[in-house]
Amino acid sequence: MGRGTNEDRPARRVVSGAVGALVILAVGLYGPVTLLPPLPAAEPVLIDRAAPVLDPATAPVLPAEGASAALLAGSTTLLGTAGTADAVPMAGVAKLVAALVTLDEHPLDPGRNGDSIPVTAEDYRSYLDYRDAGARAIAVVEGDTWTQREMLQAVLLGSSNNHADTLVRWAFGSEDAYRAAAERWLSSQGLRNTVVADATGLDERSAGTAADLARLAEIADNTPFLGEVLPAPSVTTSRGVVIVNEAEYRSADGIRGISRSFTDAAGVCLLFAVPLTLGESTTTVYGAFVRQPSYERLTADMDAFLADARASLGEVVLAPAGVEAVQYRTVWGDHTTAAVEQELRAVSWAGVPPTGRVDAEPVRTVRKGDRLGGLTFELDGEAVEVPLVATASVPDPGPGWRLLNPIPMLGSFWGWVFGPGGMLAR
Questions:
Q1: What residues form DSSP beta bridges with 71?
Q2: Which residues neighbour 349 within 8 Å (Cβ) at sequence distance 6 or greater?
Q3: How far apart are CA 84 and CA 70, in angstroms?
Q4: How far apart, in whole angstroms, are the C-alpha atoms of residue 4 and residue 408?
Q5: CA distance 234 to 211
Q6: What are 252's strand-pairing partners?
Q7: Model-level pTM?
Q8: CA pair distance 327, 273, nearest whole angstrom
Q9: What pLDDT digit, counting tens, does each position of 223-277 carry?
Q10: Helix (H, G, I), strand (E, B), or coil: what is residue 19?
């Protein structure tokens, strides 16, 4: 074969130079592409585990007649309802609403007397009308004054109809203005299935669902002023008027009566709270039993409810310490798991199944004991969480692995530079 001509040599030099430049460029890029970006992330993979095994018993039985509901303190989910789900007349529960709406407009701290409220001629006529009709009424004298505290005690403890009317007229100027304010307050509390037509509950159009009224019981029990006033067996005003607590109900059995009343349209209505203790844990059950046919039936239904409640409340182990929830496997061959850091327990009703979820982040390198996420259970409407921690360390595989594994590193480089949140996207 003959030698190339002199004209071919420059062309070969150009090609050789180009190849050399490409080699140098490739080598110059290879290092940064493999050494600079973060390692490929290992995604969390859930480990299938059996759900906690709970007693097959059910939550407490509620009265089938009338309307009833119960919930645990702080829960957004009702334990159960029974009877009609429709709004029903609520009798003196309307007075509880009147007190709460007034306190929202004119706050009164525990131990304080508040403003002086004059007794007008209209207030005195209201007293006479209720007295003559056989409705609950506490005597007032025109021209006298009651403190806001005394007025609220007459409404909440004495269930005085004339004082309920006087209270809202003082607080809002008129009963129409009060009804508008009550509608706004009920809506703000999420009690959208409750309406008030008056401040006393004698008007059967003042009505609510048992579900709403059970939540109202919790709201009332957590109002500081009511928490101070409601436990008193009786109070005496500065004028010597004795007001007996008509809301009290079986306090010897550990029940806190919040509202207790009766009308022909509403039947017997009771809002209550019952603290239940299990070991070192205490929770409160709030309930509404409305439209009960008699006080005798209320007693029997409450006995059954309390027996069921105390029997079916228990401590549930939702996740034992050390149970693994998530596993990770890296592309360089290391692996670890995320396990429950400490035993997760909760007080719950037997038979109420928990729903759980795992929140875990992808990892690259990690040390044993590092937090990798959390395990959360929804139980009775309340969320309880325990951390998930790494059971083993995952170290960096080092520059040698990076240089010898360009394909996964190229993918990491691409996301590092061009992906969402990458260098070019910032």
A1: 78, 286
A2: 58, 59, 60, 72, 79, 312, 313, 314, 380
A3: 14
A4: 45
A5: 30
A6: none
A7: 0.70
A8: 45
A9: 999 999 999 999 999 999 999 999 999 999 999 999 999 999 999 999 999 998 7
A10: helix
